[in-house]
Structures are given as C-alpha cells and as structure tokens.
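for the recovery benchmark. tokens below, seq after
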C-alpha cells in the first residue's frame, strides 16, 4: 500500500524526471536530473528514457566537446554531469575528504607521499590526451607501482576526468588531465554553497523528499543534510500514514497539489542503477514500488535492477545480455501478472531498445512470477 502523498509524489516526480520522454535534449535532461550514473549501457539508456529524439552521436559529441563530464560525486559513484554544474556535486559531496583513505591504501602499498607526487607529475603529463590505466602502466614502465590506486586518488582530487570511447555498451574508460581537457582546472566554490545548490536541485528534481532521502542519495552525514535543508526556503508536507516530513520548493506547491494521475498505459523502461531508481533509500516507503516488490528491485549493495514501470509503478525487473556480438537476450521478471497487451508491447519496446544498443536480433524471455 502506497500512501496518498507518495502516490501523488509518484505522478509528480515522474514528470520532473522527464520519464514521459519529453526533455528537449541531453543537456536539458542532465540539468533536470542533476546527473546520471556513468556506467554503460546505463548512462545512454537513462538518457533514452527521458530525451526526445535521443541519438548516440549527439551523446558522443557532447563528451568530445567537453560539454559533459564524468566525476565522482553522490555516494562516491561516478556520474555524468553537465560541464557548467559538474564541480558542484563534486564539491558538495566532499570527494577530497575521501583522499585520506586512498592515501592510506597508497601507504599500505609502500607508496610514500613523495613517490605519489612523483607519479602524479608523470601521470599528469601522460594524460594530456585520454589514456587507459593499462597504457599508463606500460608508459610508466613500473610494474611494481599500484597505478590504479594512484590514478583513483588523482580522480578524487579532481586532477583527472574519466572519458569513455564511442560505444553505448562498452564500459571501458580512460583518464585525461582535467586542465588539459577543459583548458582550466575544475571551478572552485565553498562546500557550503555547493551543498546548498545540490540540496535545492535534489528537491526540485526528486521532490517531495525527506532530509533522510537527501542524506542517503548524496552519501553525506545527517547533520550536513539537515544543515543544507535549513538554508533553503521549502514547504513541508504531511501525511497521516507517514511519520516523516516531506519537503518541496514553494514554487512547486500548486503544481504538486493539482498533479493528475499518469495514463494507465504509460510504460517506462529504466536501466540498472538509473538515477530515479537510486534517488531514494531502498529500505524506506517508496513512491514507485510497493513494499513487497521493493526488496526484489534492489540487491544487497543497494543497487537496482533494471525496472519496467506501468503508470509510474514498478511491475517487473529486466536485464539484457548480448551473445555473439549482435544478438540480445532480454529477460523479464514480472512482480505481478502482466496483461497480454503489456507483454506484447514490451516485446516490441525491448526489440527497439536492443536495436538502439546495436543488436540485429532480440529474444525476450519471461521468468515465472
């Protein structure tokens, strides 16, 4: 059973997330959802679910033109952000505070601060253009050095960015010198200003939300999340079936209370770890999944499976596997009986999705409930 407030929240946040596929372009989508998980094919599929006339070439061009950046941020995961706002989630989530644990790893691997600085200088020189960690090892010609840990530490410092080759499916990435790629270092701002921006953007894109939602999503302390909300002008929403207070931005109040239900035949395909599925803690009352289904949608690491939504509510999970390069096997696991017309529609939709990812042929298998 989903409360009245969360049911209305489902209709509202579905539209805020542009899950009716009405976003004008990729940058518009990214600005409205803050950022998406960087892994492929999750990233292009998250954009496909939201953006009108999404084309792979446009996506690749944006990265080549430095209009989108890949940086660590919320819950320490690497995300894709618009260039103009990427530094704000990076700063707000205090990625630099994670450096001590990486430096500890370096210390355990007998890499002293002096040695780290020497490698850093060499790596910054070698990453003037995108290069893989494997090729970095070869170029440094030092098999004993733990290059992966060194590079990850530099990534957390914002000295390096990740870039991905032109592939919708390949999840390989390379590193590039931030200053060389952009022509300047990442912009700087105060942690407080960045956190206020992030909290405001989160309420706008995912609201109505609780402070605990923001804490989990951002991967920060409850104290920092509470302080951030205290700096924002919000309205509070209450529901007799819920113990927590939900917050919304004042200019969204009228739209929220007048929001209409989603059409019953609205079908949405969201990939594994889509930003909406990971927008709220998986162990608390949800707007888009019932309590019994919720446990099936997430794994022990709080990562989500791919999800099929009907009228904004999760009814099944899905996965895709490519065999022989160009054949896609789609597996659908219903959480509730699906009407025939939905099953037939899903076969067509997944055939289109697989073709988008490069498949020539597709087979669809339904798992028993």
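predicted aa per position
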């Amino acid at each position: 059973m989903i409360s009245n407030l969360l049911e209305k929240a489902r209709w509202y946040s579905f539209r805020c997330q542009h899950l009716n596929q009405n976003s004008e372009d990729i940058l518009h989508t990214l600005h409205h959802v803050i950022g998406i998980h960087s892994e492929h094919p999750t990233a292009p599929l998250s954009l496909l679910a939201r953006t009108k006339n999404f084309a792979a070439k446009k996506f690749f061009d944006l990265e080549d033109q430095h209009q989108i950046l890949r940086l660590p941020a919320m819950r320490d995961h690497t995300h894709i952000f618009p260039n103009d706002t990427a530094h704000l989630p990076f700063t707000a989530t205090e990625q630099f505070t994670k450096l001590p644990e990486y430096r500890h790893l370096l210390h355990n691997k007998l890499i002293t601060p002096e040695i780290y600085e020497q490698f850093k200088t060499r790596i910054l020189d070698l990453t003037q253009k995108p290069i893989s960690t494997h090729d970095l090892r070869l170029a440094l010609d030092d098999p004993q050095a733990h290059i992966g840990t060194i590079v990850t530490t530099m990534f957390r410092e914002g000295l390096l960015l990740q870039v991905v080759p032109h592939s919708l499916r390949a999840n390989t990435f390379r590193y590039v010198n931030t200053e060389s790629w952009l022509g300047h270092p990442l912009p700087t701002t105060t942690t407080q200003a960045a956190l206020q921006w992030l909290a405001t953007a989160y309420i706008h894109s995912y609201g109505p939300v609780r402070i605990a939602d923001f804490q989990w999503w951002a991967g920060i302390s409850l104290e920092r999340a509470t302080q951030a909300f205290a700096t924002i002008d919000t309205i509070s929403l209450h529901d007799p079936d819920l113990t927590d207070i939900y917050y919304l931005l004042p200019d969204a109040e009228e739209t929220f209370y007048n929001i209409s239900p989603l059409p019953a035949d609205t079908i949405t395909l969201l990939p594994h770890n889509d930003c909406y599925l990971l927008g709220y803690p998986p162990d608390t009352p949800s707007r888009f999944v019932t309590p019994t289904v919720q446990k099936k949608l997430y794994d022990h690491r709080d990562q989500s499976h791919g999800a099929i939504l009907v009228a904004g509510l999760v009814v099944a999970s899905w996965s895709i596997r490519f065999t022989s390069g160009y054949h896609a096997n789609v597996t659908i696991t219903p959480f509730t009986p699906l009407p025939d017309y939905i099953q037939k529609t899903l076969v067509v939709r997944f055939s289109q999705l697989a073709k988008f990812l490069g498949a020539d042929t597709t087979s669809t298998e339904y798992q028993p409930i």
